[in-house]
Design brief:
The protein is mainly α. The protein is built from four helices and no strands.
Amino acid sequence: MLKKLKLALRIKTEVYDDELLSLIEAAKLDLSIAGITKNEQEDPLIARAIITYCMMNFGNPGEYDRLKKSYDEQKAQMSNASGYTDWGDL
């Protein structure tokens, strides 16, 4: 996941790796709080949500609102999908 994130952020150095790894973990926790139990980072929707979360919290603050809206929508869609949650039959 770190490699994908660094590619998305266009970062080639390792100087930010600890911060980026921390953001990846925060994104996974945020998704789990929303009820998203699927955490396979190879899943394209999970990977995209994690990358969007990290981009939102790292780098250009001028893009925060746009990225926050995008991340919230991605999270909402997955939290309503049976393949990403474990809500069972409600």
